[in-house]
């Protein structure tokens, strides 16, 4: 349609003129993407008035005039439910926004005064910021694109710890009786796939992160379709590639392989192509404290999931040409979310732990010469810091309301500043309290370092 | 993908050899599509054994060997939930299968002995029957494809009776303040569209049938997308087409028009193209008794909806070539469902009423020389007929369990055998009891005239 073309061309020009930015807000499920996006919109909407954004230079210099939501590009993608999220946060009792069950989109127009106006361009300018929200469950399907069925089966069946394996025992027992060349009917396949999906759901419940295929956890309109009825096949290593390739079309192996590639081609690739390829900036949100709570096996699982995930994005410095035609992420933030769940003097340790967790991907980014900033933040601050005197010694504590609704005063203790070793896990478990949001007050949402994140991610475009 | 191509070619050949048939089971919501499909599969699975299918000649002649569900074509479409439907029917208490919330697909392979075997073809043969289920709500979007936004607005805003209008009063009040050239923001549009959707939901609750756009009632993954945020605009007749065309892109009219055509192009047309174009046979299921229960305005609404709907299908005799490349519906059944809700001697009157209700489309079909059979049926019989003697006179009555769980014996009374006139409605209301399914017994589901419907729809392919 010509109208679409005009619009695309317009967008292309705006990208060229640096007036448009696509920000990837990346995070696994429960990392806090929805809260981050809600807070981001809320802070920018209040910018220039009451927002506390001192670490964002355009705001500090009082050049930020405000932000508005404008019509998004793709009419077929749901709009990010900002209003519903704000309603949850303003409820009595206040609640965290409900988790995302599908993709949603949001376009913000940010107006600002230029730092250096001159005769050939006006004093005020606009930046269009495109934001996306989507279920974290779907994100882990991106690494799946790099595998064929044999490789994927191997990656899913090996290197799993005992706790994770136990969750898949039911499926494992059923599948171990089946050789790749056995014939299976539709109903049997559906049942086995359902057992695999049950394993994935159990693993998510238990705090594991590295869960594929993602749509098994949130099928949406695909519920019940054969494309969601496959699973990795253990024991393929005992077969040669030729022997497997020669198996008839109705064999278990060939059927699963066909469904796996249908899943790649028709489900994951369009999602990646339409939503994940063209990003300029990225923030990776990680619930480090939640992973510490969940114990060593899950902590390692998270580290592996993140390494795999970050290989799915294109990083690199961009030139004018690449900015137009092969956009790459040229600046990145990694953030430990829920920093308000520990006392402020722990924040540097939290960041150190985050960097240790992402050691592998950070090496690659350093090699690609992409600037990365690691920080800790709270999108919506849920606690207040109190000084408490105990045995004559003053120490910081947190006051808030826990998820059960009890008002609590806690000393969350110390965050390790490097990857905990076995001895550490054995000596000390973690049990950070979960908090509900503070009662909503007028004005912008309270936060920790949202302004620092914004300054890093978009600050240079607001000059 | 070459594999897909091979499969498509194979299907094409099978169609040419008359070994494959696509059957459209068409019906608005609550017409009984899911029950019909469930019963159809169940009867054919029991064929050759206990099924009572005397009106299906292949069964009567004991040539029907049975049917099996086989792998469907499109991996991305959910499988028809036959097992769940059977579970509902076999529950304690038995329940009707839950209404369909998305599209689903089913492929049956029917084995039969030929009526006349000869040397160049074997004795037994197979027919592949492709069946589809989908929400009746989506079906009424097909007529919407023929309109532009102006024509659609007119068709939706005019000719509505007072009861229907009352359900849209809230939306009507809000929209009447807006001129086509006014500017509206996203949030306002979303709210107005939500009011319109509320009107549609209320109208469905109240028994109306002619409801567009269908996705407003069952949005699925599109929930919250701008493409589902439009509505017809009343009062466009006061504007010339040129004046409307000249309105700026941000005007109410232009925005709604854009979303309407996005809805046509990206939602309805792919659905039509992928699922509704290539049918060989069709059965239109109509809950005539339910419409009588609902009163004159809704009865007329149903008649209008069905006329519009049937214009969306291609009817006509088929040659070998047309069978391959432009499939058309060459034989059609129209069926009044839930015939078990009246006593057997009323069935001819029910069929006469059905034919009166579909008078307009039937004329067109007659003109196109497409054979049509009208019948009444019960996919899953829910009552038993009893002879009751009252004041010395024997008369038929129905025994069953009503939806509240009470065992009842009723005399449903007389069905009118032509379209009821105003006087008729004033004199006599209808109140047919709804029944829950009979407790499930071993063997095939009890039915009324499923065999007659099958004989008409596929009998000639089983020779």
Describe the structure.
Chains A, B: This is YcjX family protein. Chains A, B: Pfam families: DUF463 (PF04317). Chains A, B: InterPro entries: YcjX-like. The structure is a homodimer of 463-residue chains. The first copy, chain A, is α/β, with parallel strands linked by helices. Chain A has two domains: 18-138 and 276-382 and 440-461, Rossmann fold, CATH 3.40.50.300; 146-272, no CATH class. Chain A has 18 helices and ten strands. In chain A, strand 9 and strand 10 form a beta hairpin. In chain A, helix 12 runs antiparallel to helix 13. The longest helix of chain A is centred in the middle third of the chain and has 25 residues, at 252-276. At the A-B interface, helix 9 and helix 11 of A face helix 9 and helix 11 of B.
């Amino acid at each position: 349609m010509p109208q679409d073309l005009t619009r695309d061309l317009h967008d292309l020009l705006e990208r060229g003129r640096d007036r448009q930015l696509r920000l990837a807000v990346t995070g696994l499920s429960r990392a806090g993407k929805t809260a981050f996006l809600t807070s981001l919109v809320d802070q920018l909407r209040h910018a220039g008035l009451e927002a506390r954004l001192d670490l964002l230079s355009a705001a500090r210099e009082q050049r930020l005039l405000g932000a508005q939501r404008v019509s998004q590009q793709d009419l077929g993608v749901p709009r990010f439910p900002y209003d519903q999220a704000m309603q949850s946060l303003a409820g009595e009792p206040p609640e965290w926004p409900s988790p995302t069950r599908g993709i949603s989109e949001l376009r913000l127009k940010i107006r600002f005064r230029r730092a250096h106006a001159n005769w050939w361009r006006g004093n005020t300018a606009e930046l269009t910021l495109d934001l996306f929200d989507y279920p974290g469950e779907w994100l882990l399907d991106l690494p799946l694109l790099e595998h064929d069925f044999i490789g994927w089966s191997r990656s899913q069946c090996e290197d799993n710890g005992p706790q994770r394996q136990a969750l898949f025992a039911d499926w494992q027992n059923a599948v171990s009786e089946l050789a790749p060349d056995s014939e299976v009917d539709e109903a049997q396949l559906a049942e086995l796939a359902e057992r695999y999906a049950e394993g994935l759901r159990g693993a998510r419940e238990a705090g594991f992160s590295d869960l594929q295929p993602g749509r098994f956890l949130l099928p949406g309109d695909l519920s019940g379709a054969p494309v969601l009825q496959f699973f990795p096949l253990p024991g393929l290593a005992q077969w040669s590639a030729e022997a497997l390739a020669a198996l008839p079309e109705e064999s278990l192996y060939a059927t699963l392989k066909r469904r796996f590639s249908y899943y790649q081609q028709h489900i994951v690739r369009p999602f990646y192509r339409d939503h994940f390829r063209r990003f300029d900036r990225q923030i990776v949100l990680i619930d480090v404290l939640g992973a510490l709570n969940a114990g060593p096996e899950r902590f390692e699982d998270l580290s592996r999931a993140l390494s795999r995930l970050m290989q799915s994005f294109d990083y690199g410095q961009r030139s004018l040409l690449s900015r137009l035609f092969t956009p790459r992420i040229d600046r990145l933030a990694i953030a430990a979310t829920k920093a308000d769940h520990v006392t402020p003097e722990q924040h540097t340790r939290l960041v150190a732990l985050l960097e240790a967790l992402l050691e592998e991907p950070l090496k690659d980014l350093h090699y690609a010469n992409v600037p990365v900033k690691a920080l800790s933040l709270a999108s919506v601050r849920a606690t207040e810091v109190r000084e408490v005197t105990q045995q004559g010694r003053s120490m910081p504590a947190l006051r808030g309301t826990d998820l059960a609704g009890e008002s609590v005063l806690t000393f969350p203790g110390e965050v390790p500043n490097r990857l905990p070793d076995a001895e550490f896990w054995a000596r000390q478990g973690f049990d950070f309290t979960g908090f509900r949001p503070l009662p909503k007050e007028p004005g912008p949402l309270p936060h920790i370092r949202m302004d620092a994140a914004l300054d890093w991610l978009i600050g240079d475009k607001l000059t």
